[in-house]
Amino acid sequence: MSNCLVAQSGGPTSVINATVAGIVKANQLNPIYDKVLGGLNGIEGTLEERFYDLTNMSDEENRILRQTPASALGSCRFKLKRDNVEAFERLIAIMDKYDIETLFYTGGNDSMDTVAALSEYARNNGITNHRFVGCPKTVDNDLMETDHCPGFASAAKFITSVAKATWLDYNVYTRQEVFILETMGRDAGWLAASACLSGNVDLLILPEENFDKELFLKKVEECVKEKNKCYIVVSEGAHYENGEYIAAGEAKNDGFGHAVLGGAGKALEAMILESGAASRCKVQDLSTAQRCHVSQQSLVDVNESFELGMSAHMHTADPSFTGKMVGLKRREGKEYEADFITVDADKVANFVKHFPKEWILPEYKGISEEAIAYLRPLIQGEPDLIMKDGIPAYVTPYYMR
Amino acid sequence: MSNCLVAQSGGPTSVINATVAGIVKANQLNPIYDKVLGGLNGIEGTLEERFYDLTNMSDEENRILRQTPASALGSCRFKLKRDNVEAFERLIAIMDKYDIETLFYTGGNDSMDTVAALSEYARNNGITNHRFVGCPKTVDNDLMETDHCPGFASAAKFITSVAKATWLDYNVYTRQEVFILETMGRDAGWLAASACLSGNVDLLILPEENFDKELFLKKVEECVKEKNKCYIVVSEGAHYENGEYIAAGEAKNDGFGHAVLGGAGKALEAMILESGAASRCKVQDLSTAQRCHVSQQSLVDVNESFELGMSAHMHTADPSFTGKMVGLKRREGKEYEADFITVDADKVANFVKHFPKEWILPEYKGISEEAIAYLRPLIQGEPDLIMKDGIPAYVTPYYMR
Q1: How far apart are CA A267 and CA B6, in angstroms?
Q2: A312, A104 Cβ separation under 8 angstroms
Q3: Which residues in chain A have Cβ-Cβ distances shorter than 8 Å to B295?
């Protein structure tokens, strides 16, 4: 038997390691591969032949791995460009050297592009003994061809909980007050929209719509006039009609040429106070915690992430299976159920699935009942966490061992 | 039988309602009072005769109340000044009118001043049929005469969890990176210090020490040089030797004349990037969520908060019990246990218990083993939360009914 390699890319999620745990577990139950190797720091470390052997992981470690946030194998923001033939050749040579038949790559749409590019390269060069499979993960929930993405639901559950708790908090005083909750979401508003599950969002600002400052301030004023309070949720990617982010003053840049955002909440606060729409404002930017907390993992999310890994592993029993991503398809019917499906990675690569415009209510009033019905089942259930010294137990990251 | 009144003041905590639940439960088990009235929005609403009858609360509501964050009775930032004789007279008249013998007031050191002032006023005016009892609550843990304050431990548990999770998150990339976690704590560094329970804090900035920018940047540089990373925790109240907050640019003002802080993390980030001590920095300001989350309630904290309410109720069976606060005293010995004690409210009022200087390691290196041994037992255990629609269930605040 040959070996397989699993690696992680892009920003972490709360359940990203559950997919790795699923691949390892599946191979223990049904050994398609001799070894399951973990590639450290994604393609970057793989190209440096930095591996960790996960094959014989204990059941206890497997369980704790599922509740360990952030990429336990390490991550990278290295994008394998299609003209980087040298890197392709080097990767194939390393796969030859370590007898690696299949590379499982967990990530977002950049990672699916890597999967598509590698399988295309193999096909074009008559390489049939190396295969490339994508496993989706992204808190942003912005991948095409899948009902939703592992990682999103746990972030959404955290956001909903914090939205409810901070809403209770800002109401305790009788004074006039505006609360602004800022979530992640550069291009897609799924995370910000999920705050509406709390039932307490007065105004919602998504990147799917051009921001109209005048209308927004009018709505804040009306809301404050009516109830002396206004609870606002804004996505970091909110922008004006000309494309300029409302957090523009704060924008930096990451290695992919994407703007690193933050500060949309502070920008709204400044507008509100300057305009006099309200006299007092508080901002909570959920920042990194929303994608790496353990305390609000959704059981649906952990289980799907784990089983998606198992499904991906199983699919590779078919030797022609390559260039694919395993996704989720929701069944029709009242009770939530989802099946695993496979899709071509190049249909996912570099696209963005936006929050549907038809689910957005006018004048920042939030989201439709249909949107709520889509979101609600995803945040259900809580895993039984293993605790240590008062906080959730975690496995020592493999790149630190 | 006469009645009692319970009211809440100051900033909320995750377990502030457990004390109310304890008072209500104690009176159901051992009825000292005919009615347990909730005073809405603290002294402010009490002076407006806004009450909610809590006497016959169901067991289910009592359980959910214990896990409901933020003041379910509403709060106020109204400080009863000692020269405001009119307000004193009005409060006594209202207590007469509603046959209220005892006022239980939960809050921080301002609230203990209210308890002290009211009992002093009663004593000076020969009023013996009205009594005033303080129940401590503050995430800041800065009250004198008690081992610790209900509310602190749950905030500390949340901070520790987030510190661990974000530390795992910022390590996934090999790139150079500094992470800054900002906690509450205007005058006392207990909350920031509690992050050290994660075991991953490289540098800790507390308000108990004057901030030395030069030394700090040197330490950041050394740490980044050694491991390419640096995890920093800063208290919002960190300040220079001249008293100026390092977040000074961001300071606003609350109704008590205290500065409303925020932005210490951003201030450190600016220093680090400007100096070139590191090239990349991320800031997480925990803001409101640290004091009102439900997901990381400490079981020790919930139970102590509940039982402190029961203890306070029980103490008032003695008709001379007034002007007191119920606090906690830790037993000697290896296993953590604490007893309830009573102290004079005026020994607590307007003082601040700082994080002990002898527990602070030099050069921002964190806290001593003794400090860890003090903190660790407080964050242990998790209550079984009652969930609803994917997030923790809560009672509708009484001031909204």
Answers
A1: 40
A2: yes
A3: 158, 161, 293, 295-296
Nearest to B70 among A69, A77, A165 (CB): A165
B391 → closest Cβ in A76, A160, A391? A160
3-state secondary structure A76-100: CCCCCCCCCHHHHHHHHHHHHHCCE
Q: CA A169, A173, A177 angle in degrees (round to 5)? A: 80
Q: Would residue B83 show up in a list of annotated catalytic residues for this protein?
A: no
Tokens 């390892």 — which residue?
Answer: A24
Residue among A77, A78, A174, A284 with most chain B CBs within 10 A, to mutate: A174
Q: Which of A155, A55, A13, A46 is nearest to B172 (CA)?
A: A13
Give the separation between CA B135 and CA B147, rounded to whole angstroms: 14
Tens digit of pLDDT at every position of chain B (401 positions)? 999 999 999 999 999 999 999 999 999 999 999 999 999 999 999 999 999 999 999 999 999 999 999 999 999 988 888 889 999 999 999 999 999 999 999 999 999 999 999 999 999 999 999 999 999 999 999 999 999 999 999 999 999 999 999 999 999 999 999 999 999 999 999 999 999 999 999 999 999 999 999 999 999 999 999 999 999 999 999 999 999 999 875 444 444 444 445 589 999 999 999 999 999 999 999 999 999 999 999 999 999 999 999 999 999 999 999 999 999 999 999 899 999 999 999 999 989 999 999 999 999 999 999 999 999 999 999 999 999 999 999 999 999 99
Question: Where would I find the H helices in A196-249?
Answer: 213-227
Residues in chain A: 401
- Which one of A34, A83, A110, A140 is the catalytic residue? A140
Q: Is A68 helix (H, G, I), strand (E, B) or coil?
A: coil
DSSP states along A321-364: --SEEEEEEEPSSSS--EEEEEEEGGGTTT---PPPGGGBPGGG
Instruction: Return d(Cα A261, Cα B266) in angstroms, integer.
Output: 14
Q: Closest-CA residue in chain A for B260?
A: A282
Residues in chain A within 8 Å Cβ distance of B389:
197, 376
Question: What pTM value is reported for the model?
Answer: 0.96
In chain B, which residues have their Cβ closer than 8 Å to the Cβ of A106? none
> What is the β-pairing status of strands B51-53 and B36-39?
antiparallel
The runs of H, that is alpha helices, within A30-84 are 42-46, 59-66
pLDDT tens, position by position, A167-212: 999 999 999 999 999 999 999 999 999 999 999 999 999 999 999 9
Interface test with B, best of A152, A160, A169 (most B CBs within 10 A): A169
Q: How many residues does chain B have?
A: 401
b/e string for A141-177 if b means 16 or more Cβ within 10 A?
A: bbbbbbbbbbbbbbbbbbbbbbbbbbbbbbbbbbeeb
What part of A 154-193 touches B (C-beta under 8 Å)? 157-158, 160-162, 164-166, 168-174, 179
CB contact at 8 A, B9 and B106:
yes
B296 CB neighbours in chain A (<8 A) are 295
Residue B124, C-beta contacts closer than 8 angstroms, at least 6 positions apart? none
Which of B167, B168, B253 is the mutation pick for testing A, counting most A CBs within 10 A? Answer: B168
Calpha distance A181→A162 (Å, rounded): 9
CB contact under 8 A, A289 and B166: yes
Q: What is the pLDDT of residue B254?
A: 45
Could you read off the pLDDT of A211-259 as tens digits, one per residue? 999 999 999 999 999 999 999 999 999 999 999 999 875 444 444 444 4
Asked if A197 lies within 8 A of B170 by C-beta distance, the reply is no
Exposure string of A41-66, with b = 16+ CB inside 10 Å and e = fewer, is bbbbbbbeebbbebbebeeebbbbbb
The complex's ipTM?
0.95
